[in-house]
Amino acid sequence: MSAVPTFEQLGLDPELSQHLSTKLSIGTPTPIQVASIPAMLKTAAGTVKLDNSSDETERDVFLQSETGTGKTLAYLLPIIHRMLVASTQTASGDIRAQGASRQLGTLAIILTPTRELAKQIQMTLDDVLKLSLDRSRRSYWMVPGIVMGGDKKASEKARLRKGITILVSTPGRLLDHLQNTQSFCVDHLRWLVLDEADRLLELGFEESLRTIIQLLNERRQQSFAEYGNAGNLAMNVPFLQSPELPTNRQTVLCSATLKKEVKRLAGFALTDPIFCRGGALPTKQPNGNSVTTRVEGADGQATAESNFTTPSQLKQHYIVTPAAQRLVALTATLMNIFPCRQAPSNRLVPREATLPSDDAPPPKVVVFLSSCDSVDFHQALVGQAKPPRFWPAVTSAYSHGSSPNVPFISLAGSHLQTLRDGEWRLLAPLSAKPSAKAATAKPSTSYRYALAETSPILPGVQVYRLHGNLPQTVRTETYLAFSRTKTASILFCTDVAARGLDFSNVSHIIQYDPPSEVTDYVHRIGRTARIGKDGEALLFLVPSEEGYLDVLTAQGIHVLAKDFDQQLAVLLQRKRRRTEDVEVAATDLQKTLERWVTGKHGQKTASEQPKHHMAQESHALASSDANDSDDNAGGEAGGSVLADDQNQQDEAQDDSATLTAAEPAIPLPPNSLEQLAKAAYTASVRSYATHASAEKHIFHVKKLHLGHWARSFALEDTPTEVGSATSNLSNQTYQRSAAGNFSRDGRRDHAPSFRGPPQKAFSNNAVRQEGKPNWQNRGKQGPGQSRNGLPSRKHDFDDRPFPKKQKKQTDPFKRGNLNTDEFSSGL
Ligand SMILES: Nc1ncnc2c1ncn2[C@@H]1O[C@H](COP(=O)(O)OP(=O)(O)OP(=O)(O)O)[C@@H](O)[C@H]1O
């Protein structure tokens, strides 16, 4: 076993290496970096060459490595190194003589599928470029920049005119600028990076990518024919002729998986590529041991086809829970992750064993859901619902009893005006209609908008949400806030957060809704256990979905069972007096949540209202112009909803702060959570139909017990709206665009939303007999359950209060009210 080389040994500039270790605490390269850096560098004599092919600095590169292994730096570092060296290789010692300048236009383009990812790469780029160099060497001329859907094109054009040396972009917006922005100079482009290639393809960007590559080739050929490598600006720029720069454009493709679509893209985008593959990361970084790295030559091919490698230190579990108890099981799971301490006033003490040590970092949990509406609902519920009143008072085990302040951003009144036109719920999810304050707001007034809720059920825990229907500012700021927070926190999100996003120190991933494809499973769990850190992942399944475990096993993914009863035992720590029965405790919790959702817990008093949704700011922000168009080629999520220009984003960022309890709050109407629950339920049933066709035998709506499913949204009854909603499914191939693309940030993110009153009641004739869940047989299909995994009535427990309703419902599938073939087709 050979020792891991240092960055310097790999050929990286010593000052750059020093900057990485002292300023960014990055001392040891990861396997993919060990593979890529020499391959992409013009290696100087005396440095390590891991492979003969690394001499050929002109060749394209394919980087493949599992999630969270440092692919971003794997391509950024060699690019920055080469620009740096080329700009300072001057005989006279005067770096200005080299002519490196932002006016040369864009030298490197990094294409990413989503805006969050673009922002994240830009932040990494900023960090690396902050390096302080010897006086004779400067990096100031390397200007990083970002253009992406949702931002204002006019300001982007201005920045492109001034020159952006390393440009991070989403494909639609890049194509737009290539076609329409005269001043966008790519004549001297030397690097094109396609990051998260598999995701780019899944979002339907293949055509855009082909056009982009074609346009870039044409521009380069034109420029080269006219001026050679000296460039068309000064006609003789030594920098551009430096042997450190690739003579032609070097294209780099990054992917965590090796699906056939990715290989097809590689075939088109790459010429004679070097294949760099990162082996498994050592579990503790840096330990200098056991790094396996392979750099393959031109004909290097991936050996395995499934290629779903997951970090070995990641603990993967699943839990089987009856549909009706999903919500309680989720709450109990979160309670297990976020233990509490006895409040000073209380005599009941949680078991000490569950309490973390004082120096343990607070957990950060990401919960994946299948639709935007479901994210809105769960964030609102977990973030606001109060526990049963007889639960003992507890305090957070992490924040020493004090409630951490909530991060907020400023939003201009002009946004609220846009919201009033139908999207108000996005910003004030619990308002039945625009609040009185918002309605009378002057366009120039700004509001504070809280990015998180503080959870009464989980004291000290902040609850965030992220999905593609949120305004871009909210998405970006939520990503940043959750990523940076050191507070115990939960993020409810759709798959918009599944790929590439590097939330630091995520300890747990919960897949409450199974992913629509196995690839998504791998990417979702890749948000934890990054760079050798520990992590845990938990997959929720209902009994009829247990077949999914075989699908995972077939892909080499092995998950262990978690016991349902053990998971719920935590509820006994907050037990009703003299109750040792976990079922009673679970029932109490379910009833409380249902009351909370239906508003039957009584009208909230002013002091009970969440205090942080929107509080009027004392100052005003300039109102933004009309929305700019988002990328049209498919891809970024939610951009059509609202747009912010960069300045306003910056302004919002500057204003980021925390709200205190004294902030005035906008009152929320009592029934709005119920609306969210219904919308979430509807969207959830719909998105169930979007699973991959190969998994339809497992995830088929026919197998769902709609009544029990409704319980998991704290609804006592199946909302009648679901009928009309699901019966329209056959018409809803709009989830894919006319070009056959998926919806903007993943098809399940954009499961249709419930908006306003139901269009048409579907049915109120009940049909399916809703049996009570069989507690003894939950989690497994046994004698107490019917063939489809649902509890049978025979084994019901009459004395079990939860769930108690036995309603007759129309079975839309039986009565032909819903064409099941249409339901399952093509979605
Ligand atoms: N050599 C290193 N040592 C320690 N940390 C590193 C190193 N390289 C990168 N990191 C950090 O690891 C994290 C993950 O890196 P990155 O996002 O590039 O991974 P990735 O492979 O692109 O993951 P994904 O496939 O999920 O996008 C980042 O926070 C980054 O700063």
Automatic annotation (TrEMBL):
It comes from the Eukaryota. Its main location: nucleus. It is an enzyme of class 3 (hydrolase). A motif (Q motif) lies at residues 5-34. The keyword Kinase does not apply. SUPFAM superfamilies: P-loop containing nucleoside triphosphate hydrolases. One of its GO terms (biological process) is rRNA processing. Residues 5-34 form the DEAD-box RNA helicase Q domain. It is found in: Nucleus, Nucleolus. Residues 393-572 form the Helicase C-terminal domain. GO terms for cellular component: nucleolus. Its EC number is 3.6.4.13. The keyword RNA-binding applies. Residues 52-276 form the Helicase ATP-binding domain. Residues 721-740, 774-789, 817-827 have a biased composition (Polar residues). Residues 793-814 have a biased composition (Basic and acidic residues). Coiled coil: none annotated. GO terms for molecular function: ATP binding; hydrolase activity; RNA binding; RNA helicase activity. It catalyses: ATP + H2O = ADP + phosphate + H(+). Residues 595-657, 721-827 are annotated as: Disordered. The Q motif is unique to and characteristic of the DEAD box family of RNA helicases and controls ATP binding and hydrolysis. Belongs to the DEAD box helicase family. This is ATP-dependent RNA helicase. It comes from Dimargaris verticillata.
